[in-house]
Amino acid sequence: xxxxxxxxxxxxxxxxxxxxxxxxxxxxxxxxxxxxxxxxxxxxxxxxxxxxxxxxxxxxxxxxxxxxxxxxxxxxxxxxxxxxxxxxxxxxxxxxxxxxxxxxxxxxxxxxxxxxxxxxxxxxxxxxxxxxxxxxxxxxxxxxxxxxxxxxxxxxxxxxxxxxxxxxxxxxxxxxxxxxxxxxxxxxxxxxxxxxxxxxxxxxxxxxxxxxxxxxxxxxxxxxxxxxxxxxxxxxxxxxxxxxxxxxxxxxxxxxxxxxxxxxxxxxxxxxxxxxxxxxxxxxxxxxxxxxxxxxxxxxxxxxxxxxxxxxxxxxxxxxxxxxxxxxxxxxxxxxxxxxxxxxxxxxxxxxxxxxxxxxxxxxxxxxxxxxxxxxxxxxxxxxxxxxxxxxxxxxxxxxxxxxxxxxxxxxxxxxxxxxxxxxxxxxxxxxxxxxxxxxxxxxxxxxxxxxxxxxxxxxxxxxxxxxxxxxxxxxxxxxxxxxxxxxxxxxx
Amino acid sequence: xxxxxxxxxxxxxxxxxxxxxxxxxxxxxxxxxxxxxxxxxxxxxxxxxxxxxxxxxxxxxxxxxxxxxxxxxxxxxxxxxxxxxxxxxxxxxxxxxxxxxxxxxxxxxxxxxxxxxxxxxxxx
Lengths: 493, 124
Hints:
The structure holds two protein chains of two kinds. By secondary structure, chain A is of the alpha+beta class. Chain A is built from nine helices and 13 strands. A five-stranded mixed sheet of chain A has the order 8-10-11-13-12, covered by helices on one side. Chain A has a four-stranded antiparallel sheet with strand order 2-1-6-5. Chain A has a two-stranded antiparallel sheet with strand order 3-4. Chain B has five helices and five strands, in the order E-H-E-H-E-H-E-H-E-H. In chain B, strand 1 (about 5-10), helix 1 (about 10-25) and strand 2 form a beta-alpha-beta unit. In chain B, helix 2 (about 35-45) runs parallel beside helix 3 (about 60-70). The relative contact order of chain B is 0.19. The interface between A and B is medium-sized, with 27 and 22 residues.
């Protein structure tokens, strides 16, 4: 409501000065016209009075009849428009003064409110011979106050008239604005405000405005916009619902796919675990009995039999290695491999691994070096670090025909670098990227020669990841390879 | 020093292999093919050590170990689990069920007997 009042008041306020100015101007003009007319009327009256008095005055002056002169002057001075009367001789001697004359005796003294008036008539006497003689003059004075006195009532009427008219018009205007404009606008505003509480897509209260004017156009436009909004919202809701259904359906499908994948993953892990168990059980017998026979616990063997039993043992051990690698990989992929966080002394471990593998290197005539400062303790998983070292050194020896294999441990402040460098066949650039994939063994045409699971590097990379480290390979064909493992020192516990 | 060792195992050739290796070193092997039979035999014969396969039908090695430990007369007999399970946590599970040791299959025929003998009580 406050706003609507403001609207009406603002309209009135902005118009009021002009209205008042206009009213004041009209009043002033009216008063001006009255003034001019009253002034003229007084001038005419004065002239008439003077002409009327002149014969009697002239007679009295000629006769030197002072009492008559006095009486005439007194009578003239009684007239409402006359403030003073003076009769003079032709020589300027004053005969009679009645009432007041303007200051200094000037006939036309000026005042801020108007000019003093005076009607001067010569007094003439016609002799018996018929000649006119100037015998004196009659002055009848009037003052501006007379005019104003006459005007006063007229001015008052004009002012009251103007005031009443102005106030009345103003009131009518204000009330009309309030009733016609402000109230309807307020009603429209209320309805529009009410729209915000109604759901945008539902039915809504239409705006009502009874007149077909500019405001009516605005109201129609608002109604139409609101209707369009409702339509759009309904459309949007339909799209939304549709979208929700699609999303729900997709989610359901995806959940199904995820569950299928997880179940397949569990099945795979279970399958691999069962397979390696099932494979190991007969392998237990094969390795066990081969051992029994080779140790001649079941009776003596000749040299050829012993050699062949050795081959059985090597094959069985290789098979076991393969099974262990597959199991390791499946455990890592199933997220079942937990790494320990224990003190690992790297120098002793490096030396031990090198000594374990030295027979393999000696068999191929390779030099095997170990360079590890110590003692060097990191917090990691002993078994897994050793597995990485054995794998990398084993690979290096396997793929090197002549020269040397060198293990180097370089400690840093936060990480330790383990390098395995060989002078072997090397790896082509394109193959470096594939190196850490499972079951990848570079086809050199010598594949038969290098027995292995093809899982070693893949396992090494995953173990490095699990231990929070990295593994990288650098190589060129014919120039040997360097594998670099970086492991975090870990928190010393 | 010869000991009486109970071996609970369902696989015939593994049974034969372990039996052969242990007897070649002068030990006596008592054979049981499942858990029920194993516990009965243990109660009756009071062996010096029990070798226990984990993957057994009906009653698995962990249950057998708990059943043996539940018998007052067998509370102090060393139990060594022998398993081809190599999943993480198997060792802890075996030790938690009351086993004293844990050997992985396939066994190393050259070191197996010595590994088992480690768990024998030193003096009667």
